[in-house]
Amino acid sequence: MKSVEWKDQVLHLIDQTLLPAELKIVECHTYQEVADSIKTMKVRGAPAIGVAAAYGLALAAIHFAGTETGKMIEELRRAKEVLARTRPTAVNLFWALARMERVWQDHRDKDVKTLKAVLENEARAIDEEDQAMNRRIGDFGKELIPAKARILTHCNAGALATAGYGTALGVIRAAQEAGKEVQVYADETRPLLQGARLTAWELMQDNIPVTLITDSMAGYLMQQGKIDLVIVGADRITANGDVANKIGTYSLAVLANYHKIPFCVAAPLSTIDMDLRTGREIPIEERHHDEIRRLGNLQLAPKDVKVYNPAFDVTPSSLIEAIITDQGIVKAPYEENLAKLFKGAGK
Ligand code: MRU
């Protein structure tokens, strides 16, 4: 089952707000529906958001009713703006939108029909390439996993968060496929519980042993010697190797460092933003206060209590043992080695 699937020019998404209670597919027929699904987190996870946004622009192109290329490009620009305003932190969204824009720029002298076809093809390519990149991340990353490993992960960086296979969970999948004995501890990941609802569900579907813990238990497990390695995904990595990921990631990195446990990040090159120098420049999304005050219909805290709800934090690269990308494993000094990686990949 794919979290993001393009069928008959309609985008099908697993509604991740309903899992694990209900496995429901929502259909997006317009770019506005795609934007709404990203904003409300029916689709979430940096690479999956990028793929969905690319299909959003394909939908904007397909449903353009006019005959003038210039007018179509105006409509695509409007759609791009709407899609870009959904969530600010994951750079894959902006990366995918920019890649689609380059395609319409390169074909601006072509007719409307041609433009529709090339944009649909580009969105499909972004989708397929993401799946292939995750396999490569898994292949590189499995080498870092001991033959018997107890791995802690945070949030959901799995098949649900990508076009398939996953980044952090892709590494775990690849290690298991290579015959290693892996056991995963999944942080529940307050406040939206991506670990409890999504990672636990996804790993159980694949028969990968998973034990759910609350976020506050991680330190205790490390102190008891129960964690060999931490692997997480990323929403944006800057040129110096700082990593924005789900809120709580930084605390895990500090804990892992104190306990001398390797802390690794898995992400494709589309998550690395070489235009930003350090993590301080990353825009951090703040979400609705009721995500903390309420749980569904249940009031958890006083209705009007003041709340602070940043959805992501930034882990400085000094706490990171390795960044596992689709082009290889990068270690410190990150600034130098990430630049080399991009040069080597011809980016
Ligand atoms: O708010 P979310 O659920 O979109 O946040 C997701 C994460 O933080 C993931 O770890 C990250 O996007 C990497 S997914 C391969």
TrEMBL record:
User: EC number(s) in its UniProt entry?
Assistant: 5.3.1.23
Pathway as given in its UniProt record: Amino-acid biosynthesis; L-methionine biosynthesis via salvage pathway; L-methionine from S-methyl-5-thio-alpha-D-ribose 1-phosphate: step 1/6
Per its record, the protein catalyses: 5-(methylsulfanyl)-alpha-D-ribose 1-phosphate = 5-(methylsulfanyl)-D-ribulose 1-phosphate
Reply yes or no: does the keyword Isomerase apply: yes
Per its UniProt record, what SUPFAM superfamilies does this chain match?
NagB/RpiA/CoA transferase-like
Report the record's Gene Ontology biological process terms.
Answer: L-methionine salvage from methylthioadenosine
- Catalytic residues, per the record, are 235 (proton donor)
Record: residues binding substrate = 44-46, 87, 194, 245-246
Supply the alphabetized keyword list. Answer: Amino-acid biosynthesis, Isomerase, Methionine biosynthesis
**Single GO term (MF):** S-methyl-5-thioribose-1-phosphate isomerase activity
> What is the uppermost EC class here?
isomerase
Question: Where are the residues marked Transition state stabilizer as a site?
Answer: 155
Pfam families in UniProt: IF-2B
UniProt keyword annotation of Isomerase present: yes
Q: What does this protein do?
A: Catalyzes the interconversion of methylthioribose-1-phosphate (MTR-1-P) into methylthioribulose-1-phosphate (MTRu-1-P).
NCBIfam families noted in UniProt: eIF-2B_rel (TIGR00524), PRK05720.1 (NF004326), salvage_mtnA (TIGR00512)
Family assignment from sequence similarity? Belongs to the EIF-2B alpha/beta/delta subunits family. MtnA subfamily.
Q: Provide the protein name.
A: Methylthioribose-1-phosphate isomerase
Designated gene of the protein: mtnA
